[in-house]
C-alpha cells in the first residue's frame, strides 16, 4: 500500500524521545503535527489528519500507513467530524489505515466521528499489527448524519472494519455493516439513537483504564436496566394505555478479548453527540499522562 | 453399508481418497430418505444442546425497554436473523464445505476473534461444545465427530464455537441445508426465549414464527455462500445491549 498511500507517518525514538521521522501526505489528505500539545515532560507525538474540503467525496480513497517504533507514543486524531458526502452512483468514499505498533509503544487513534450525509456510501478499514506488549487505543464512531437538521440514518451504506493482529494471529476482527434494507430501514433499527461508538483498549499500560471503565459501565447500566413489569406479560400490557417506555439515553457495555484478556472493547449507543463526547472524555481522561492532553477535551 | 451413505463420509475428515462413490439410484433414494430423519433430529428443540441458556440479547433488550410487545419482538427477531446471516452464516458455510479438522480449527480461531461480544462468545462456545458432544454420541456412524472431539477436548487452541461445529456436522451429514438449518435453529431459539420471558404466549409465538419465515428465507438467500472475510455484524445497537447482559436472572447469556 505504501506506494499508492495518500499519507505515511513514522514515529521513532530520536535522542530518547518520540519523534516524527516521516510525515508525508498528498491531496486530499493533509497531516499536521503541532509541536506543543502536551508538556515537555510528556513524550508523545500528536498528528491531526485533515481533508481538503473537510470531508471525503464519493469515489475518493484516503489511505495512510502509520508506524510507531518501540517505546514511542503517538496520537492520531482529526480536527472535526469527518463528513462523507452524498454518493455519486454506486461509488464509495473510503478510508484505509495500516498501523504497526512496536514493543512497549502506545498508539491512540482518537478521531472525531464520521458523519455520512444522505445517500452517502462509506467504507473504512483499519488494520493494526501489534507486538506482545504494545498498547493501543482505537475509537471508531459514527453518527446518524446531520441529525439536528433532520438528516437521520439517511445514508445508503456504511462499513467499518477493524483488525488487530499479533503476528499472524488474529486478536480482534470486527466489521460493522449498515445498509438500507428492505425489511427495516437503518432508522427503524436504530430508534432514537444517533451515535454508535466503539472503543478498543489493548495493552499492559491501559490495564487500569480498562478495569475502571468496566466497573463504571456496570454501575451505570445496572441502574438503567430493570426487569419488565409484571414479568413482562403481554396479557396485562394490552390493558394499559400505550405509553413510550423510558429508554436509557446512553447504552454502554464492554467485553474483554484476546486469550489472556489483554484487550477490551466497549460498545456505546447514545442519543446525542454531546453524550457520546462526554462519555469518551470521562473514560479516556486517564490517557492524559501518556499523551500530554486528554482526548476529546471540551473546547 | 452401501457407498454414498454417511459411513463413507467419515473418511472425508482425514482426506482419504480410498472410498468410491457408486451411483446406484435406489440406494441413493434410500440414503436421501434416511437423511431426513437425521436432519429433523438436528432441528428438533428436544436435542439436548442447551440452546435455551442463551437469550440472544432479548432479556437485555426487554430490560432496556427496547422490546416491549409483539411488534417489537418481530423487529428484534428479524434483526437477529439478519445479523446471524451476515456474521455467522459464512462460518457455517465454510465449515460445511470443508468438514475437516484443519479447516475447522482455523474457522474456530477466527470466530473467537470475531465474536468480540463476550456474552455472545461464551454462549457460542457453550452451545458448540454441547452440540459436538451430543452429535458425537448420537450420530455414531459418523466416526469423524468422535475423533474430532477426542483430539481437541481440553485443547487450549480451540473454543468449540457453535457456527463452525454446526456447519461441520451438517457438512458430514448433508451440506445442502446447513445454512438454512442454522437460521432456523436461531429463529426457533429466540422465539423459545420470548415465551420463557413471558413476552409472548406459545401459540402467538408459533403464529409469528410462521409469519417471519419468508423474511428468514430471504435473509438466508441474501447472506448465503459467502467467504469469512465478508462476515460483518449489522446490529450495533443490539450488540451494545447484549453486552449488558450481566444482570440477568433467567438466562446464562
TrEMBL record, chain A:
Region ranges (Disordered): 222-251
Record Pfam families: UreD (PF01774)
Keywords: Chaperone
Record flagged with keyword Chaperone: yes
Molecular functions per Gene Ontology: nickel cation binding
InterPro entries, per database record: UreD (IPR002669)
Family matches, as HAMAP family: UreD
Family the UniProt entry places it in: Belongs to the UreD family.
Listed name of the protein: Urease accessory protein D
Protein's organism: Miscanthus lutarioriparius
UniProtKB/TrEMBL annotation, chain B:
Domain of life: Eukaryota
Keywords from the UniProt entry: Chaperone, Nickel insertion
Annotated GO MF terms: nickel cation binding
Chaperone among keywords: yes
The keyword DNA-binding appears for this protein: no
Pfam families referenced in this protein's UniProt entry, alphabetically: UreF
Function: Required for the maturation and activation of urease via the functional incorporation of the urease nickel metallocenter.
Similarity comment: Belongs to the UreF family.
Subunit details: URED, UREF and UREG may form a complex that acts as a GTP-hydrolysis-dependent molecular chaperone, activating the urease apoprotein.
Name of protein: Urease accessory protein F
Source organism (scientific name): Miscanthus lutarioriparius
Lineage: Eukaryota, Viridiplantae, Streptophyta, Embryophyta, Tracheophyta
Amino acid at each position: 500500500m505504501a506506494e499508492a498511500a495518500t499519507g505515511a507517518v513514522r514515529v521513532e525514538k530520536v535522542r530518547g524521545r518520540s519523534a516524527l521521522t516521516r510525515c508525508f501526505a498528498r491531496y486530499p489528505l493533509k497531516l499536521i503535527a503541532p509541536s506543543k500539545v502536551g508538556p515537555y515532560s510528556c513524550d508523545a507525538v500528536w498528528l491531526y489528519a485533515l481533508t481538503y474540503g473537510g470531508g471525503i467525496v464519493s469515489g475518493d480513497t484516503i489511505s495512510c500507513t502509520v508506524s510507531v517504533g518501540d517505546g514511542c507514543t503517538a496520537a492520531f486524531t482529526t480536527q472535526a467530524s469527518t463528513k462523507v458526502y452524498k454518493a455519486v452512483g454506486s461509488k464509495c468514499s473510503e478510508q484505509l489505515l495500516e498501523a504497526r505498533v512496536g514493543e512497549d509503544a502506545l498508539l491512540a487513534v482518537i478521531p472525531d466521528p464520521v458523519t455520512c450525509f444522505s445517500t452517502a456510501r462509506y467504507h473504512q478499514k483499519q488494520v493494526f499489527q501489534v507486538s506482545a506488549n504494545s498498547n493501543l487505543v482505537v475509537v471508531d464512531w459514527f453518527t446518524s448524519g446531520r441529525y439536528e437538521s433532520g438528516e437521520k440514518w439517511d445514508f445508503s451504506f456504511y462499513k467499518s472494519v477493524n483488525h488487530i493482529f499479533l503476528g499472524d494471529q488474529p486478536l480482534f476482527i470486527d466489521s460493522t455493516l449498515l445498509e438500507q434494507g428492505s425489511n427495516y430501514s437503518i432508522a427503524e433499527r436504530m430508534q432514537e439513537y444517533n451515535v454508535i461508538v466503539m472503543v478498543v483498549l489493548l495493552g499492559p499500560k491501559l490495564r487500569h483504564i480498562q478495569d475502571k471503565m468496566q466497573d463504571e459501565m456496570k454501575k451505570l447500566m445496572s441502574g438503567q436496566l430493570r426487569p419488565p413489569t409484571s414479568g413482562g406479560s403481554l396479557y396485562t400490557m394490552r390493558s394499559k394505555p400505550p405509553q413510550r417506555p423510558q429508554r436509557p439515553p446512553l447504552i454502554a457495555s464492554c467485553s474483554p478479548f484476546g486469550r489472556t484478556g489483554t484487550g477490551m472493547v466497549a460498545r456505546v449507543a447514545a442519543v446525542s453527540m454531546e453524550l457520546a463526547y462526554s462519555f469518551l472524555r470521562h473514560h479516556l481522561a486517564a490517557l492524559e499522562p501518556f499523551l500530554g492532553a486528554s482526548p476529546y477535551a471540551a473546547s | 453399508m452401501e457407498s454414498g451413505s454417511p459411513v463413507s463420509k467419515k473418511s472425508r475428515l482425514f482426506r482419504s481418497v480410498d472410498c468410491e462413490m457408486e451411483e446406484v439410484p435406489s440406494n441413493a433414494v434410500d440414503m436421501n430418505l434416511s437423511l431426513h430423519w437425521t436432519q429433523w433430529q438436528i432441528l428438533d428443540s428436544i436435542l439436548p444442546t442447551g440452546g435455551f441458556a442463551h437469550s440472544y440479547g432479548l432479556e437485555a433488550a426487554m430490560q432496556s425497554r427496547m422490546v416491549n410487545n409483539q411488534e417489537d419482538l418481530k423487529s428484534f427477531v428479524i434483526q437477529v436473523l439478519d445479523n446471524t446471516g451476515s456474521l455467522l452464516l459464512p462460518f457455517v458455510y465454510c465449515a460445511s464445505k470443508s468438514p475437516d479438522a484443519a479447516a475447522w480449527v482455523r474457522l474456530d480461531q477466527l470466530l473467537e476473534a470475531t465474536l468480540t461480544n463476550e456474552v455472545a462468545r461464551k454462549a457460542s462456545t457453550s452451545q458448540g461444545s454441547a452440540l459436538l458432544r451430543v452429535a458425537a454420541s448420537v450420530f455414531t456412524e459418523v466416526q469423524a465427530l468422535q475423533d474430532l472431539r477426542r483430539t481437541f477436548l481440553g485443547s487450549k487452541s480451540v473454543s468449540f464455537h457453535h457456527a463452525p461445529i454446526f456447519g461441520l456436522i451438517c457438512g458430514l451429514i448433508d451440506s445442502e441445508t446447513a445454512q438454512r438449518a442454522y437460521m432456523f435453529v436461531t429463529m426457533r431459539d429466540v422465539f423459545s426465549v420470548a415465551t420463557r420471558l413471558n413476552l409472548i404466549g406459545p401459540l402467538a409465538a408459533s403464529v409469528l414464527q410462521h409469519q417471519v419465515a419468508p423474511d428468514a428465507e430471504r435473509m438466508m438467500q441474501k447472506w448465503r455462500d459467502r467467504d469469512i472475510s465478508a462476515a460483518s455484524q449489522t446490529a450495533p445497537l443490539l450488540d451494545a445491549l447484549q453486552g449488558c447482559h450481566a444482570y440477568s436472572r433467567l438466562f446464562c447469556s
